[in-house]
């Protein structure tokens, strides 16, 4: 697994835990970065968690709009975390190609969630990817 893939996994872990605990993800990450008991945190993990947190409302609105038949609250928490990260990379990470953002999110869903989650993540991010250029133009 490459360094960025590991950073994504760690970011999903932080986003997931923050969601379950009702905490701000950046605050939780800051606790981890400063803790001597935790392995060093990759700079890309920090970028991802800060980016998702900064754009969280817009990200959640887009997920809710494009997750056919699902509300954010009804989704498994890990799927929410994966989708948030994938959508952040899709729309705001200019150095990540759209296909890579989607593929990485699918791989995270395969490893962390239910058997149906990869297909669900692919569907949501795929629908958003078709309008990604229009969305980026107004961000």
Automatic annotation (TrEMBL):
Which superkingdom, per the lineage? Bacteria
What name has this protein been given in UniProt? Transcription antitermination protein NusB
Query: What keywords are annotated for this sequence in UniProt?
Result: RNA-binding, Transcription, Transcription antitermination, Transcription regulation
List, alphabetically, the SUPFAM superfamilies matched. Answer: NusB-like
Q: What is the similarity comment for this entry?
A: Belongs to the NusB family.
* A Pfam family: NusB
The protein's role, per its UniProt record: Involved in transcription antitermination. Required for transcription of ribosomal RNA (rRNA) genes. Binds specifically to the boxA antiterminator sequence of the ribosomal RNA (rrn) operons.
What organism does the record attribute this protein to? Solihabitans fulvus
Q: Which GO terms describe its biological process?
A: DNA-templated transcription termination; transcription antitermination
Indicate the segments forming the NusB/RsmB/TIM44 domain, all copies: 6-129
């Amino acid at each position: 697994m490459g360094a960025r893939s590991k950073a994504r996994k760690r970011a999903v872990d932080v986003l997931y835990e923050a969601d379950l605990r009702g905490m701000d993800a950046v605050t939780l990450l800051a606790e981890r970065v400063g803790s001597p008991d935790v392995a060093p945190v990759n700079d890309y993990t920090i970028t991802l968690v800060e980016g998702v947190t900064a754009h969280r409302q817009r990200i959640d609105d887009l997920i809710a709009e494009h997750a056919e038949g699902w509300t954010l609250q009804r989704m498994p928490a890990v799927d929410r975390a994966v989708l948030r990260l994938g959508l952040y990379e899709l729309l705001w990470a200019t150095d990540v190609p759209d296909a890579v953002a989607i593929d990485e999110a699918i791989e995270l869903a395969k490893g962390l969630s239910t058997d149906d989650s990869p297909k669900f993540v692919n569907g949501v991010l795929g629908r958003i990817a078709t309008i990604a250029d229009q969305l980026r133009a107004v961000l």
